[in-house]
Amino acid sequence: MTLLDYPGKVACTVFLGGCEYRCPYCHNTELLDMNAPELMNDIELLEFLKTRQKLLDGVAVTGGEPLLRNDIASLLERIKNLGFLVKLDTNGNHPDRLQEVVEAGLVDYVAMDVKNSRERYGETIGLPGFNISRVERSVEYLLSDIVEYEFRTTVVKQFHDEKSFEDMAEWIDGAQNYYIQSFVDRDTVPFGGLEACSVEELEKFREIVRPHVKNIEIRGV
Asked: The pTM is what?
């Protein structure tokens, strides 16, 4: 159960394995190559959710990257049919599948990571030379306000600076919600030596972005 992962709702979080990114600061590295032991299959998950009907408002589906799953629409539909709201977390690299599930009415809220400025995107996700055109399409799609959404950036001192936020602010101009998340080091983070920014730095980043978004908050401090 979570009171944090789905804003304003009481929810549970479902982690799906697999991600094409290799972010050096990832908290869920055991999910990247889908080698983590499966705790539930789909049938067991749906049976579990039936026991939470009228107790939970929604289900937050995260990863890994949920939109890598070819049958994600089918899973979300079955969750919706149990009466739950669905929040989807995504890295934005699958705009066609994102549009498919949103326009089918299978998602009520989308949280998309905007990892960094376009110039530093590949460096930040551990894939130098990464083509961000699909991420740009997802940003543009969510900015059309077809579904409730948030953009969010996990801030790491080694990857983010004022220029990063100047560029991201211009990129997501007009967004509904934007969350600046402070990096927290954990045993599962693949690279050591990474640091969080100070509260003062995070506040400075927020002021850079503030003129461009409707609601901006700092998380994790």
From this structure: 0.93
